[in-house]
Specification:
Blueprint (H helix, E strand, L loop, with lengths): L20 H6 L1 H7 L1 H8 L2 E5 L3 H13 L3 E5 L8 H4 L12 H12 L4 E5 L7 H9 L3 E5 L3 H13 L4 E7 L2 E7 L2 E7 L10 E7 L3 H4 L9 H6 L2 H16 L11 H14 L12 H10 L5 H20 L8 E5 L4 E5 L4
Length: 343
């Protein structure tokens, strides 16, 4: 195994690196926005991103430009022709190369102040290697992976007290999930009276993914249920269940519509979603999902990856409330909603 496939050293450990005058000049606008202390936290953060597809590409661009300290990127796949659409780190001549090798120099060129380490060995996600990898970083983000894998890595993050993000797209649908454990942050005090704005320290307790998936919708009014767009939520959750049944594969034709519709309707009933709002899953939505889920669309990846990066930076800066805790983007309508799943 080469050096590029070894677990990174340092990361969350060691003495904090102080921002230099040159770095302060580069990040001047951000420091004015959220303060030197928040920028310092980002400067010392090591972020692990697993899988390099369209969503991760957009997220990496934003967090690297924002000035994190180190990016550790794990992906054992090779670049394919399909990756050239949403993966702007890749070129035609990269087809057949390892993704992380093709992308590394282009990621580094975005911000030479950020250290980029790549790993292409699939065994890094096995038990002992994964434990060591998670311990060596400050935050973990897994993109475009099946639900069982997300749950497993989320549980490892919980054991070692590391914040966890997941994000990805299925055609026109996209999602972000986060488990920030107990997260403290500074938020505006909207109840404050007086001349100037005031801020207060606030805490949120998050749920792991396996608990979030047990969320029940009973107790919500018709209006509240409708605003949360449960059809898009359960289209994604049904796709995760489909992947579990099909060894990680997603539907790639309308022939899968009856099976996915059956899965989605069963989940909808179990979750006690208000039947006056959504008695059954819309068959046209499921048909659209089956037709497009296996493809990546650059605009959807840009929206989801951009919001994913923004939320990671919020969590690191500890200013403003991050997502709590499941965000869904519906490209059919161009709308997004946040659902508090079992929080």
């Amino acid at each position: 195994m080469s050096f590029s496939d070894t677990v990174p050293e340092g990361g969350a450990k060691g003495n904090p690196v102080q921002i230099t005058e040159d770095e302060a000049a580069v990040y001047d606008r951000q420091i004015r926005l959220w303060g030197l202390e928040a920028q310092q936290r980002m400067r010392n953060a090591t972020i692990l991103i697993v899988r390099l597809r369209g969503t991760a590409t957009e997220a990496i661009k934003n967090i690297v430009l924002a000035g994190i300290g180190k990016l550790v990127l794990v992906d054992s796949d090779e670049v394919t022709d399909e990756d050239l659409g949403a993966g702007f780190f890749f070129r035609e001549e990269d087809v057949g190369k390892k993704k992380v090798e093709a992308a590394k120099a282009r990621i580094e060129s975005l911000n030479p102040l950020v250290t980029v380490q790549t790993m292409k060995h699939h065994t890094l996600l096995e038990r002992e290697s994964l434990d060591a990898l998670v311990m060596s970083v400050d935050l973990v983000c897994v993109t475009d992976w099946h639900c069982e894998g997300l749950i497993r890595i989320n549980e490892v993050c919980r054991r070692f007290g590391k914040p966890f993000y997941a994000g990805g797209t299925f055609g026109l649908l996209g999602y972000i999930f986060c488990d920030l454990l107990k997260h403290d942050y500074i938020a505006p005090d909207r109840s404050a009276q007086g001349d100037g704005p005031r801020s207060v320290k606030t805490s949120q307790i998050y749920s792991p993914l396996h608990m979030a998936l047990r969320h029940r919708w009973s107790g919500l009014t018709k209006r509240q249920t409708k605003e949360l767009n449960p059809a898009a939520v359960y289209a994604i959750l049904a796709l995760w269940e489909y992947q579990k049944m099909k060894d990680g594969k997603v539907p790639n034709s309308v022939d899968a519509t009856p099976e996915l519709l059956s899965i989605a309707n069963a989940m909808l009933a179990e979750a006690e979603v208000n039947s006056q709002v959504l008695p059954t899953m819309p068959s046209e939505l499921i048909e659209s999902v089956c037709r497009s889920a296996s493809h990546e669309f650059s605009p959807v990846c840009a929206v989801v990856g951009g919001l994913l990066a923004q939320d990671i930076l919020k969590a690191l800066a500890a200013r403003e409330a991050p997502i709590a805790n499941f965000f869904v983007f519906d490209g059919n309508s161009g709308s997004g909603t946040v659902v508090r799943m079992n929080m």
